[in-house]
Amino acid sequence: MDILSLFVIVPVLTVLILAFAKNLKQARIISLIGMAIQFAMSINLIFAYIKERAVNNDIMVFTKDAVWFESLNIHYSIGVDAISVVMIALTSIIVLAGVFISWKIDDLPKEFFISLIVLSSGVFGFFISTDLFTLFVFYEIAVIPMYLLIGIWGSGPKENSAMKLTLMLMGASAVLSVGIFGIYFNSNADGGALTFNILEIAKVNIPLAAQNIFFPLVFVGFAVIGALFPFHTWSPSGHASAPTAVSMLHAGVLMKLGGYGVFRIAMYLLPLGALSWSNFFLVLSATGVIYGAFGAIMQKDLKYVNAYASVSHLGLVLFALLMLNKTAWNGAIIQSLSHGLLTALFFALIGMVYGRTHTREISKLSGLMKILPFIGAIYVITGLAYLGLPGFSGFVAEMNIFVGAFEHPDMFHRILTIIVVSSIVVTAVYILRMVGKIMMGPITNDEYRKLPKATWYEKVGLVLLMIPVVIIGVMPLGLSEMIKASIQPFLERLL
Predict the structure, then answer these.
(1) Could you state, in order of their start, the residue ranges of all structural domains in the chain?
(2) Residue 1 confidence (pLDDT)
């Protein structure tokens, strides 16, 4: 069995075994074992990739190919580069942490963990696919369980939020499918056979007219799940209604499919279209960065604050990708990793606070650091990392993005960059406001003095997410060099 297919097979086997679980204890132990194996596999993949890359200069390594539908030339075709590898590692960390954070779920636990792991199998399949059709199938497998996870296990107006999310993402999928088939029917522009294989299509000179038509379709189709302004409205309501682990996967993993798809498909296969449309989408992404930051500062509910902050920080990813240079792209990928870890941390912390105080309203919370020291300490550290403090992953990501953006000498790019950089000030305001109001100050509610401390499984989940945030911040060079090597083929397509 090849090393990559196991990332789909292990979740499927875990789900099959989970189907026979008889109680909560069995469900969570099976889920923990399955996702711990997946996590160990992702760590092994990193070292295996580094070893393989030392002797293999192919764009993708560990490639495998098997015919799926011969008449349409659809294959189960897989492979990874450094970008895929780090995204797989991110997913495995957040899914494993999500299992720990959901340790005490008592409402249909077996069905909850099955839905969670099915979603993760779609994400893993998406990141390893090098066939457009197969990639799209895994994308839908990842998206569909969100409706159940929010609609059944969510809170508040959960049915409305689940339906809004589903309709927006299904609409985006319809647009994306048109773009994918547009690429497919132009994949023989140089006289070859029609193909869905990404590496084969990259060798074809798709006509400029076709690229200008299909690039915005593919870009928007993927960018909607990455909270592109003005198609972001599904995200805050979905986050607010989702249970904690689902919010973690939603923001930390699922929304990363957008930026990855934009980079892997739209930018790589339609480079001339990217050059033509980049300025238009730059304006939208810059607007999303500022809008999300100001939206966060206006919120009174902790989940809504983090949801709008996600819109802002994911806008940075799209903004960096549209700058079309190595430094900004390196920042975009690190920002995807950083945002995934930090947003998952924030949602986990918010879930722990809500589970004890039964409120997410900022005005009703105060002095929690004295009562919940471990949760409070991680909350403060996460907040500082989120606003880009040196020594954490956010600083590395944002510095690369802003330096890469300033590499453009023209006034248009410089002005947009200054506008986007100003979002850091707004981010500092809402982060420091939250930390100061919730964690510091006097204890205003005597009932909070009896709140239970963090449990062992909550601590494990938080530490799992915090460790890579610090590692990326303190030792970023190895990661950056690995990513930059995989970015080079994308740059060559733009020249």
Answers:
(1) 6-494
(2) 56
